[in-house]
Design brief:
By secondary structure, the protein is mainly alpha-helical. The chain is built from four helices and two strands. Helix 2 links the parallel strand 1 and strand 2. This is Transposase IS204/IS1001/IS1096/IS1165 DDE domain-containing protein.
Length: 92
């Protein structure tokens, strides 16, 4: 895999220098690509797929909020909404 990954990068113009980031949907083969590169690389899960993981949490939180006392519902929903903002702004 190492030779194949490097060959594919060279076909795309990689010259063996500079930082490498692998942006993916989390597919295992793309995660493995990072480990076969000739230098350290950063793996980043793309925003669309992060948002897709958050969507069920947001939907469930609306259901849960209706079961809280009325004075706690708004703060709870704001906390859940803040998760997306924090991730987008690099506050993991």
């Amino acid at each position: 895999m190492r030779a194949e990954g490097l060959l594919a990068l060279k076909r795309l113009g990689y010259e063996g220098k500079g930082e490498i980031s692998v942006i993916s949907d989390g597919e295992d083969c793309l995660k493995r690509l990072k480990s076969v590169l000739p230098q350290p690389a950063t793996h980043i899960l793309d925003w669309f797929h992060i948002a897709m993981k958050l969507r069920p949490i947001e939907q469930t939180s609306k259901w849960l909020a209706r079961r809280l006392p009325p004075d706690e519902q708004e703060e709870f929903l704001e906390d859940i909404a803040a998760v997306r903002w924090r991730l987008w702004n690099g506050h993991v």
